[in-house]
Design goal:
This protein is mainly α. It has three helices and no strands. It has a domain of about 70 residues.
């Protein structure tokens, strides 16, 4: 169903009238001020984007330089933890064997189970 031509023309004329009235509501100086502010904000955002891009590049380069050291040190720490766990296991075993053969070798205080106060390095850190 197509609208009659007269109705279309009246709608177009009403739209033009609304547009003319709307232009009188907005001050041209205010529009120019808004446009200048938008250009100023755009410039600042572009500058910020350039700074952030530079920082990302710099961070990537720094990470590349130290990632090998991080990897080596992480492996070293895990190896040291494994070695220390083995040493403590051997010490506990030796202590229990000595206690079995020589019950008076350790005082009552040393025979108590000592609480392990070492931090768990593999657990995620709480913020």
């Amino acid at each position: 169903m197509e609208e009659p031509t007269e109705e279309k023309e009246s709608i177009a004329e009403a739209s033009k009238e609304v547009s003319r009235e709307f232009r009188t509501l907005v001050n041209a100086d205010d529009l120019d001020t808004l446009k200048q502010l938008q250009h100023l904000i755009l410039g600042r955002l572009q500058d910020s984007n350039a700074v952030l891009s530079h920082f990302n590049d710099y961070s990537e380069n720094c990470f590349t330089e130290v990632s090998g050291d991080f990897y080596k040190n992480t492996r070293l720490l895990k190896s040291m933890k494994s070695d220390l766990d083995y040493i403590f296991l051997r010490l506990r075993t030796m202590k229990s064997k000595i206690s079995a053969v020589y019950p008076d070798a350790f005082t009552d205080e040393s025979a108590k189970q000592v609480e392990d106060r070492r931090p768990d390095l593999e657990a995620p850190m709480e913020p």
